[in-house]
Amino acid sequence: MHKLYKLNTESLEDVEIFRRFYEELSEGRRHKIDSMRQQKGKLLALGAGVLIDQGLQEYGLREAEVRIAFGENEKPYFPDYPDIHFNVSHSEKMVLAVFADTEIGCDIEYIAPIKMKIAKRFFCPSEYEYIMQQEEEKRIETFYRFWTLKESFMKATGLGMKLAMDSFCIRLGEEICVEHELGDAEYHLEEWAEGEYRAAVCYLFP
């Protein structure tokens, strides 16, 4: 079971709203916000903190009182609450967070123009072929479907960028499948459109 949280950072642009949420967060999160040079980065860092706080409230906790650590491949986790799994992603003005009782990953991407040679270089041949078989006006969105699904899988495994994008393949259909060489682990994938964005979640079957 998992629960999604999302936020458009435009809702944080008001100075008083920004300050109110900022003051509710941990010193570590405030430091991260302050370290961002551009306002866009500050808003995204604040938005991530707000969603983490919202997710933790479901467990009777607050972001300001929970330690966040990072695994070998930089995946964040709560060392004092190993049964609470979470992940965060952001792009442009959107922030996405997901909480679950099993390993989980998420990704959200703004649909911007992209050169298909990126898919040819980093994706599996079958994924690239699937994209190129689409009508031209659908290729960019299809690219982001694969990208978000692959990113969410990489994050769910805990390997992150250590796992090469072409070392596993996503199969689109009525049910989305992932072909991988990570043992018997089974992963479930979900995707959706979020306005001008594509988003995906991947979690490990318990």
Task: Give descriptors for this structure.
206 residues; Ribosomal Protein L22, Chain A; globular; 10 strands; 35% helix; single chain; alpha+beta
What does this structure look like?
With 206 residues, the protein is an alpha+beta fold. The chain folds into two domains: 2-100, Ribosomal Protein L22, Chain A (Alpha-Beta Complex), CATH 3.90.470.20; 107-204, Ribosomal Protein L22, Chain A (Alpha-Beta Complex). Helices cover 35% and strands 26% of the residues. It is built from six helices and ten strands; from the N terminus they run E-H-H-H-E-E-E-E-E-H-H-H-E-E-E-E. The chain has a three-stranded antiparallel β-sheet with strand order 1-5-4, with helices on one face. Helix 2 (27-35) packs antiparallel against helix 3 (39-57) and helix 5 (125-133) runs antiparallel to helix 6 (139-157). The radius of gyration is 18 Å and the shape is globular. The model has no long low-confidence stretch (mean pLDDT 96).
Oligomer: single chain
Q: What is the helix fraction of residues, given as a range?
A: 25-40%
Looking at this structure, what is the CATH superfamily of the largest domain?
Answer: 4'-phosphopantetheinyl transferase domain
Q: Identify the CATH class of the largest domain.
A: Alpha Beta
List the uncertain runs.
none
Q: Any idea of the CATH topology of the largest domain?
A: Ribosomal Protein L22, Chain A
* Total tally of structural domains: 2
